[in-house]
Write a structure and sequence with these properties.
Mean pLDDT: 85
Strand content: over 45%
Shape: elongated
Low-confidence stretches: 1-27, 111-116
Largest sheet: 12 strands, antiparallel, barrel
Distance between the termini: 16 Å
Structural class: mainly beta
Radius of gyration: 22 Å
Length: 335
């Protein structure tokens, strides 16, 4: 197997396919340990419901990740069999209404039954002056284990598969503005070597959310198509690369939140003699975005990784912009 194919397979297996964005430009040989540090910031707008009055700009939405992966080699018909363990510490922002868009009434203020009026109820906290706090700021962790392997690889084509499990630590699962969490996930990635300076990568990701143990977080299907351009040097005297292409993420489940329903979902009109009823809007995200992922090879065994994701359209987005900064090193534990 060529070094090009090995590097490609490593870029998939030792990456973060749940968010589908950051690939590994170094490594990919049996007996190698891959270590990475990554900082992620989510910005732009957070869109809990389709009602634009609920949208807010997140502050302090951060993730800090430390990961280690080891490539064992061949295991029967499975090649490049690898195990990766990651720990993520996250800080998620408070979810608060914007009174400049829509003033919410305090519990029992008498707005119930009035079409279009909203109350701060169902467990949300009324802060006064029309401001409602749906969820407070939170922090916690996510432990992740990924097993990956190659089923096809040669000098021009590669196909890899993976399975993944995640466990939340101290996470408020009911919050909307959370990092993506999938108790179980699986996926694949295909790579084609088109030119010495150009690769094409296509990846598929399917995650369960909190199913089958709960319905707090939706599962998702993600599809990424990236053109991978490589250069011997860039503005700095290092080898460099750029991955660029569209990204699609679609929830495969839907859920509801009584706090947001009481605030932003309309009161259904009732017939004479009947009580008005509270409608309930589903939370089910669709995000169509572009990924821009440059990296620099400081040495053959040390890389600096950057990333920027911009949502163009969709709804129920945790954030419309995502930024990455990472450092990845490779260590040969055996020849």
């Amino acid at each position: 197997m060529t070094r090009i194919a090995a590097a490609f397979l490593s870029s998939f297996f030792l990456s973060t396919p749940a968010l589908g964005f950051v690939s590994t430009p170094v490594g990919g040989h049996p007996g190698e340990l891959d270590l990475n540090l990554q900082f992620t910031a989510e910005r732009g707008k957070t869109e809990p419901t389709e009602n634009q009055d609920s949208w807010f700009k997140p502050e302090g939405f951060h993730e800090y990740k430390l990961g280690a992966g080891y490539t064992f080699g061949d295991l029967g018909p499975l090649e490049f069999f690898a195990l990766r363990l990651e720990g993520t510490f996250f800080q998620s922002p408070e979810e608060v209404s914007d009174p400049d868009k829509f003033e919410l009434a305090a519990p029992g203020a008498g707005s119930s039954g009035v079409p279009g009026a909203g109350e701060c109820t169902a467990g949300a906290e009324y802060l006064g002056d029309g401001v409602c706090q749906f969820y407070s700021a939170d922090e916690g962790g996510i432990a992740t284990a990924t097993v990956s392997f190659a089923v096809i690889h040669d000098a021009k084509f590669a196909l890899g598969l993976f399975v993944r499990g995640q466990v939340p630590i101290g996470m408020d699962l009911d919050k909307f503005a959370n990092p993506r969490l999938d108790y179980f996930a699986l996926g694949s990635q295909v790579g084609v070597d088109l030119k010495p300076w150009l690769l094409y990568e296509s990846s598929i990701y399917l995650g369960s959310g909190t199913r089958p143990f709960g319905e707090q977080q939706n599962g998702a299907f993600a599809l990424t198509n990236l053109f991978h351009l490589r250069a011997r040097s860039w503005l700095l005297p290092w080898k460099a690369g750029l991955k660029l292409g569209p990204y699609l993420e679609v929830d495969i489940h839907e859920r509801h939140d009584a706090r947001y329903d009481a605030a932003y979902s309309p009161i259904a009109l009732a017939a004479a003699g009947e009580q008005p009823s509270q409608s309930s809007d589903r939370i089910r995200a669709v995000r169509v975005a572009t990924a821009i992922l440059p990296y620099f090879l400081v040495t053959e065994h040390l890389a600096v990784e950057l990333g920027y994701i911009q949502k163009f359209f969709g709804y129920d987005a945790r954030a419309t912009q995502v930024y990455f900064l990472g450092l990845r090193g490779l260590f040969a534990l055996r020849e």
